[in-house]
Amino acid sequence: MQFIDLAAQQRQQLPDGRTIREAVDARISAVLNHGRYILGPEVVELEATLAAYVGVDHCIAVASGTDALLIALMALGIQAGDEVITTPFSFISTSETIALLGAMPVYVDIDPATYNLDPDKLEPAINARTKAIIPVSLYGQPADFPAINAIAERHGLPVIEDGAQSFGSEQHGRRSCGLSTIGTTSFFPSKPFGGYGDGGACFTDDPELADRMRRVSRHGQARRYFHTDIGVNGRIDTLQAAILLGKWPNFAREVKARGRIGAAYSSKLQAAGITSTPQLAEGNTSVYAQYTVQVDQRAQVQAALKERGVPTSVHYPTLLSQQPALRRVHSGSSQGWHTPLAQASSERVMSLPMHPWLSDDDQDRVVDSLSSALQNISTSAAA
Which of 21, 83, 105, 337 is disulfide-compatible with 95, CB 3.0–4.6 A? Predict the structure, then answer.
């Protein structure tokens, strides 16, 4: 059993009768024929397609989800001495990009039901040095943007959605990456809309921010050899844009399948007496980038599942506030971060196999294996 089965994805049939593999091959061939490997026409097409899907005016396709965050922060003018509020329960990119600019990540605790930043804990963390807020839409559903945006507006702060795991999800009918000042996402292969390499995008309705992000992603270049900003080499490759376009016609069907499979997982697990299943906030849908439960004695459970041929993963076992790479950055903070709910989650979360082609039989096998493992471990502990 595959944790994420990308090979199965290539065999899926598109509405025009081709497989995804055939559509991707045709798109790659077109790039090889025209030879515009940097900023070719596929990049323009991808940006227009994704902007329309998200429901914003501007999409800037970039080289990775990490670059998307960095470019967004640079376009907002984040610099040394600034503070950016975020969650400690995320991948390193969320804090790494803040630290790369000399700014300080400031952490607030999570809502234990959704694992996303808790708006009720946000306002006390804001001070004169705060320059932006980065909520992470973890595991596939958006953070509470109505509440977060309202607080940010009171304080005149921009909000960047780290939507690396939530592209395709919705909140009250609006799509992830179109819920804040800037939305960012990742096209890493395992993401809900993944390429076959690195890629990402920034989204916004603000034309000035869009122009700035586009310049920053291209070495700060306003026109050829004329640079108005300090930037990075953050362009998406034309080949990667072509691959994404080849896969695009199947994306809506994959989003629907993810929702169906996620709901089926929850039903099957709860029927087996496992209640620590994902919870959707009101108005949210999820693309279940990870299907995550909580268990005691996680290492033993994972070992038992591995023996049964069921792969698992942990997202994320170490909080960002505890990462050795960020220790020097955090040492400059005058405050300690009290995030017990994030800490408790990091010690218990475990992600199960999840992708749009997961069969009912495989789901049953996962649920049966997990239920048996938990019962065996509980019996052994009681003996």
Answer: 105
Q: Tell me the pLDDT tens digit for each residue of 50-67.
A: 999 999 999 999 999 999
- Residue 284's SS3 state is strand
Distances in Å between the Cα of 382 and the Cα atoms of 269, 275, 375, 377, 379 are 23, 21, 11, 9, 5
pTM of the model: 0.96
In a domain, 1, yes or no: no
Statement to judge: residues 183 and 307 lie in one domain? no
Q: H/E/C letters for each residue in 152-214?
A: HHHHCCCEEEECCCCCCCEECCEECCCCCCEEEEECCCCCCCCCCCCCEEEEECCHHHHHHHH
Closest CA to 85 of 119, 46, 36, 58: 119
Domain region containing 65: 6-107+115-249
- The verdict on 223 and 302 lying in the same domain is no
CA 172 to chain centroid? 19
pLDDT digit string, tens, across residues 82-95: 999 999 999 999 99
Q: What is the largest CA-CA distance in the chain?
A: 73
